[in-house]
From TrEMBL:
Taxonomic classification: Archaea, Methanobacteriati, Methanobacteriota, Stenosarchaea group, Halobacteria
Protein name per UniProt: Polyprenyl synthetase family protein
Pfam families, per the entry: polyprenyl_synt (PF00348)
Keywords: Isoprene biosynthesis, Magnesium, Metal-binding, Transferase
Gene Ontology MF terms in the entry: metal ion binding; prenyltransferase activity
Length: 280
């Protein structure tokens, strides 16, 4: 765990450094409120661990990891506006703290800083751009044409959550100069982890305590959002089993990757377990 914390510290330090350079002061304050208010940093950790698994170093992947975290945070700002959620990570959401206009500008600022980190590598830029297209389609689908069955829900989960997880892992493989098969296989692993993560997130929204979760619960039902427990007839336990199945498929994909660093690979395997067992 100590090695894992060192990797996380690399992300936190570089993230703070990037935020420190944001101008003007008002935007700096708003971006800082969003990006440095906590979070599990799951996606950047995937980037670093994927890179190390296939022979790169944590340092090689740190900027890409920070970049994908900034993209993720930018999407959360917009999610909270759409959902009218006033709480994020146990603190005030960006729009509730600063207003709708400044929150949208904050999201733009986060994306700008992110793409500055990807810009020197065309493959990295392409991977993130593709993920953002998928994310945008997912968000639009959720607002205008909600899924009506489990298959359509799974497509939405892949687009909304799986796409950024996929990008996170592929960025790590790209940072390690991996071959296309390895990039794709690590991407499949992470996409399925992301889907499992989303299913579990939906279940927690339905059954968890908001204080323990660090954000409001019951939103999916109140806003008639396409949660797995709203769209399908699955019970929370059955939905958890679906998440477990996706995690198992993620593990199957990861086992196809030749590991230069078995310890890093073991952490990725552990993550696939964590996303279906987490309580927040």
């Amino acid at each position: 765990m100590e090695l894992l914390e060192r990797r996380r510290a690399l992300i936190e330090e570089r993230l703070a450094e990037i935020i420190d350079g944001v101008d003007p002061e008002t935007l700096n304050e708003e971006v800082r409120h969003v990006a440095l208010s906590g979070g599990k940093r799951v996606r950047p950790m995937v980037t670093i661990l994927a890179c190390e698994t296939v022979g790169g170093t944590a340092t090689d992947a740190t900027d890409f990891g920070v970049g994908i975290e900034l993209v993720h945070n930018a999407s959360l700002v917009i999610d909270d506006i759409i959902d009218r959620s006033e709480l994020r990570r146990g603190t005030t959401s960006a729009w509730a703290e600063f207003g709708h206009g400044p929150a949208i500008v904050t999201s733009d600022g986060l994306l700008g800083e992110a793409f500055a980190l990807f810009s020197a590598n065309p493959d990295a830029t392409r991977v993130v751009a593709e993920a953002m297209v998928e994310l945008g389609v997912g968000e639009a689908t959720e607002l205008t044409s909600q899924p009506e069955n489990e298959a359509e829900y799974m497509t939405l989960a892949r687009r909304k959550t799986g796409s950024l997880f996929r990008a996170a892992a592929e960025l790590g493989a790209i940072a390690a100069d991996s071959d296309p098969f390895t990039v794709e296989t690590l991407g499949e692993y992470a996409e399925r982890v992301g889907i499992a993560f989303q299913i579990r997130d939906d279940v927690l929204d339905a059954v968890a305590d908001s204080n323990e979760l660090g954000k409001p619960t019951g939103h999916d039902a109140a806003l008639k959002r396409p949660s797995v427990v709203q769209v399908t007839d699955l019970t929370p336990d059955e939905a958890n089993r679906r998440a477990r199945a996706e995690a198992d498929r993620a593990i199957d994909a990861l086992e196809q990757v030749d590991a230069a660093d078995p310890e890093a690979k073991a952490y990725l395997l552990e993550l696939a377990e964590f996303v279906v067992e987490r309580e927040r």
